[in-house]
Amino acid sequence: MKKRPVVALTGASGYIGSHLLDKIAPYADIVALSRNGNRFENSEHVEWRSCDLFSLSDAERALEGADIAVYLVHSMVPSAKLTQGRFEDMDAILADNFAQAASKQGVKRIIFLSGTIPDEQKGLSRHLHSRLEVEHILGAYGVPVTTLRSGLIVGPEGSSFPVLAKLLKRVPYLCLPRWMNTNTQPIALQDVLSAMDKSIQTANHPAGTFDLGGPEVMTYKQMVNQLSEVMGKNLPIHQVPWIPMWAVKFAVRCLTHAPKQLVYPLIESLRHHMVARETSTDFMGTIPFKEAAKQALKNGGVYQPSRASSSPKPNDVRSVQRLPIPEGCNTEEVALEYVKWLARTLNPWIRTTVDERWQCEIGLLFLKKPLLEMTYSEERSTEDRALYYITGGLLTNEKLNKRGRFEFRKIPEKQQIIAAIHDYMPSIPWPLYLFTQAQVHLVIMWLFRRHLENVSFSSFKSPQITPIVKEKE
C-alpha cells in the first residue's frame, strides 16, 4: 500500500485551507494547524494542532512529523488587541518562524500560495512586495519551496472578490480612475485548489515559482462589467482622468465596511498588471470568470464584516519595528546595544542594569522594584536572534503575562532586523496604556532606529557601551 504523505496545513480552518483540507484528505494524513486548533475534533486522517506562528517553538511543534508544509498565511488583519507595526514586518516574522521550523523538523517541501508578481518589480505595492519577501524568507533555510502565484481568486469568501461584490451591490454607478486601467487574470477557487492538489500529489515536483491564472485576461473595468452583469445590475461605469488613491481607499472602506488593514493594501496593488506567465499548463485554470462568479455568489460571495466575539479579548500587545543593522554587527550585539542606549538616553531618570547572564531590569531611580524585568533565553537565542522573556516589573500584569517576550531577529539575506514584542500584558488600565506607555514605546523605537542609522561601527563597539554588570549580592 502506498504510504500517505503527511501534510501540515496552515490556516486549515480558514477560507482556502478548509477547502484544500477536504480535497486532499482522501490520500493524505493532514496536520491541520490553526490558532484555535483545540476547538476541532480529530478524525482518522486529520489531526488538529493549535499553533501561533509568531512563536518559533509553536511552529516547531506544529511541523513535527510533516513531509510537506503548506503555507497559507498573511497578517493584514491584526491578531492582538493592540497591534503596532506594518503587516509586512509581521509577515516576515511568520515566514521566518515557519521556514526555520520546517528546516529543523526535516520537512521535504514547502508549498506557498502567493500573489501574481508583475514583470516590473520596481515600485511594487506593499502587499506584493511582502509576498515576494516571504518567498525569499521561506527558501532561506534549505527547504525546497514551490510557490504558486495566483491572481484574484474568485470564490465565496476571502478578501478581494467578496469586497468587490459588496461594493457593486451598494452603489448605483461606479467611477474608475485611469490608474486602474490595468490587466488582471482572475482564477476560480476550484482551479486554485486543483493546482495545489497537483503540487502536493507530485512527490518530485520541482521547486520554483509557477503562476496561476484563469482562461481570460481582462482589464479591471471589463471584470467589473462582467460581475455587474452576473449580479443583474448592469451598472453604469465611468472612467475618470484622475482620482487619488486615498479617495478610492476611503470610499471602498466606507461602502463595504471592510477593515482598512485589508482594503488599503489590496487597492494599492490594482495599479499593477497582474497577468500570469505561461509557466505550466498544470496550473492554468479552465473556468471562465462569469461562471466562477455565479458559483461564488450562489454560495455567498459578498463580503460580510466579522462578528465580534462574545468573549472579551485579552489586553495583549504586539509591537513590531524593522531596524537597520550597523555594518559588522550581529543581532545579539544590536539587542544588547538597545539596553545600553536606553540607559544613556533616559539617564538620569531611568536606570538599566544587565547582569552577566544578560538578565535585564529597567526602572526608575527612586523605585526599588523595576518597571520591566526581562530574562534572556540563551537556549532559544542565536547569533541571528536574541530572545528575552518579559518576566515581571511594575508595568507587567504578572498574573496574565504567560508568553510575553521581546525579540530581535535578523531578516535572511538583508542587513535588517525586526524588533518585536509579543503577547505582552500591561498592568496599567488599558485606556491609560494606549495613550501613555504604548506611545512612549513607539517613540523610543523610532529614536533607536535613528541611532542605528547614524552610529558608526567603531562607536558601536566602543568601551562606553559595553554591558553594565550588576554587582553580585
TrEMBL record:
It comes from the Bacteria. One of its GO terms (molecular function) is protein-containing complex binding. Residues 11-123 form the NAD(P)-binding domain. Residues 300-320 are annotated as: Disordered. Signal peptide: none annotated. PANTHER family: NADH DEHYDROGENASE [UBIQUINONE] 1 ALPHA SUBCOMPLEX SUBUNIT 9, MITOCHONDRIAL, NADH-UBIQUINONE OXIDOREDUCTASE 39 KDA SUBUNIT-RELATED. This is NAD-dependent epimerase/dehydratase family protein.
